[in-house]
């Protein structure tokens, strides 16, 4: 039997993306098709989404949806089966989906994403011309009220699941919004949507969804404790029997060095010669010394405290002392952007940085760097290290969350048994990172060992095949769940 799933998210690749959430939401439907799961994705009607939508059919209308009329439009775009919340008063805004031109969150974000959840509930309750789904799958705080709306309606409803992609972003808003959100007064309590005197969108989903998932097994364990639980650890411990971790995958058609049009030449584990051309192109793009034998470390990341990029700045003298080079692509905190610009200016030919994000350049870094550094203080899953494995850039990662779950440390025993795929370090400190960088330099000096690590890395299955099986099993368990 085919399971029908409504996936609810604030972004979806390749139509609108600010981070890994979009990649996951965009890739899962195709992977789940092989598991006899049909996914329709509900997203806001941003300009870029509406512009891409084809075969459009109106399936529902709202006389008033948090400030104005709105429609639900079914259609397709870039191979995705979509339902779009066409509400111009909420979503007809260019640029970043969350932040205005002044760099601040849109003040009506609470209503914008409540509208997304309200639309999900209407579909889930069978009030549109679309077939009612078996499961509603909410992603992150922006969709966190969907399980709440379905819960408080009463009567038959789909099964619900919420996935936490990053617990640090929770969607907490003033309690006075409760009436405007259309939630009953009794929902404002510890067993409902209330969270420290506010309305907590993510908290609501975690409290009221039938099942909770996050994007790696280790992160699912970490967030049950106070250090990583971000104030929600008590709730997550209480619902531990409903919480599981399912590791992410990547789209291995988009990320495929053997058929990547963004690279100077294709290559594979069996025929790796083309990789040298990417390395040369990378060194040229970042103004590094043309040195085919150099250990080039790469970084593709948001520049933030979470990502540990301040630690890498502190460890830079150690990295340079090994004779290595560094390239960095990213944007974020002003102090870190300034720090990496200064480092590039102070070490021409050895350090290069480009502030911003460029999808094609991200592919070139994965293909041209010898190793990729991911020193995160916490990391729910991480996708960049999965791309690195696929492209043969040896990951150097902190041993947290999904990084710990996806990288096999190349310690002496692992090397002897031919199973290492990268380097892990803990704790997440400058000293431990420096040790990992020195260890990488030592391994790189042994060409045979490094070649073996690269072969192991590129042989790792980073596709959605296994994760899709886990999600499909979860959906089958939830299908037919009715409200108590």
UniProtKB/TrEMBL annotation:
GO BP term, example: glycogen biosynthetic process
Coiled coil: none
N-terminal signal peptide: none
One Pfam family here: Glycos_transf_1
GO CC aspect terms: cytosol
Superkingdom in the source lineage: Bacteria
Location of the Starch synthase catalytic domain: 5-237
All residue ranges annotated as the Glycosyl transferase family domain in the record: 289-428
Catalytic function, reaction form: [(1->4)-alpha-D-glucosyl](n) + ADP-alpha-D-glucose = [(1->4)-alpha-D-glucosyl](n+1) + ADP + H(+)
UniProt cross-references to SUPFAM superfamilies, sorted A to Z: UDP-Glycosyltransferase/glycogen phosphorylase (SSF53756)
InterPro entries linked: Glyco_trans_1, GS/SS, Starch_synth_cat_dom
EC number in record: 2.4.1.21
Keywords: Glycogen biosynthesis, Glycosyltransferase, Transferase
GO terms, molecular function: alpha-1,4-glucan glucosyltransferase (ADP-glucose donor) activity; alpha-1,4-glucan glucosyltransferase (UDP-glucose donor) activity
Residues binding ADP-alpha-D-glucose, per UniProt: 17
Involved pathway(s): Glycan biosynthesis; glycogen biosynthesis
Function: Synthesizes alpha-1,4-glucan chains using ADP-glucose.
Record-linked NCBIfam families: glgA (TIGR02095), PRK00654.1-2 (NF001899), PRK14099.1 (NF010699)
Family: Belongs to the glycosyltransferase 1 family. Bacterial/plant glycogen synthase subfamily.
The protein's name in its UniProt record: Glycogen synthase
UniProt source species: Nitrospirillum iridis
């Amino acid at each position: 039997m085919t399971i029908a799933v409504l996936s609810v998210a604030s972004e979806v690749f390749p139509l609108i993306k600010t981070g890994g959430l979009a990649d996951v939401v965009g890739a899962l439907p195709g992977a789940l098709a092989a598991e006899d799961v049909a996914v329709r994705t509900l997203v806001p009607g941003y300009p870029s989404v509406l512009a891409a939508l084809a075969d459009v059919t109106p399936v529902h209308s709202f006389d008033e949806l948090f400030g104005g009329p709105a429609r639900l439009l079914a259609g397709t775009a870039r191979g995705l089966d979509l339902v779009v919340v066409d509400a111009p008063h909420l979503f007809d805004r260019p640029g970043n989906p969350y932040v205005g031109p002044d760099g601040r969150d849109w003040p009506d974000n609470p209503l914008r994403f409540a509208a997304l959840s309200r639309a999900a509930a209407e579909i889930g309750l069978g009030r549109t011309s679309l077939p009612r789904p078996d499961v509603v799958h909410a992603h992150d705080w922006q969709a966190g009220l969907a399980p709440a709306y379905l819960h408080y309606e009463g009567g038959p409803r789909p099964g619900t699941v919420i996935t936490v992609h990053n617990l640090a972003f929770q969607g907490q808003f003033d309690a006075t919004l409760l009436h405007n959100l259309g939630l009953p007064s009794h929902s404002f309590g510890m067993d409902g949507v209330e969270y420290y005197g506010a309305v907590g969108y993510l908290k609501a989903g975690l409290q009221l969804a039938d099942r909770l998932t996050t994007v790696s097994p280790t992160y699912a364990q970490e967030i049950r404790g106070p250090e990583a639980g971000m104030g929600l650890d008590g709730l997550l411990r209480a619902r531990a029997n409903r919480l599981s971790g399912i590791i992410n995958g990547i789209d291995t058609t988009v990320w495929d060095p053997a058929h990547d049009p963004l690279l100077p030449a294709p290559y594979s584990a069996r025929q790796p010669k083309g990789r040298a051309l990417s390395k040369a192109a990378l060194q040229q793009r970042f103004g590094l010394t043309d040195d085919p034998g150099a250990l080039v470390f790469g970084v593709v990341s948001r520049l933030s405290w979470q990502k540990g990029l301040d630690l890498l700045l502190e460890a830079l003298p150690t990295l340079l002392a090994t004779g290595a080079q560094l390239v960095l692509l990213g944007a974020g905190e002003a102090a870190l952007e300034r720090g990496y610009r200064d480092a590039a200016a102070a070490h021409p030919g050895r350090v290069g940085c480009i502030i911003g994000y460029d999808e094609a350049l991200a592919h070139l870094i994965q293909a041209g760097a010898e190793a990729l550094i991911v020193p995160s203080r916490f990391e729910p899953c991480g996708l960049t290290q999965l791309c690195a494995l696929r492209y043969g850039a040896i990951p150097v990662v902190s041993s947290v969350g999904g990084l710990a779950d996806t990288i096999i440390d190349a310690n002496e025993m692992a090397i002897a048994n031919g199973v290492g795929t990268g380097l892990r370090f803990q704790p997440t400190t400058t000293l431990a990172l420096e040790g990992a960088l020195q260890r990488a330099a030592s391994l790189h000096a042994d060409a045979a060992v490094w070649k073996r690590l690269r072969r192991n890395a590129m042989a790792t299955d980073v596709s959605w095949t296994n994760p899709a099986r886990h999600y499909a099993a979860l959906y089958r368990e939830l299908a037919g769940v009715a409200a108590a």
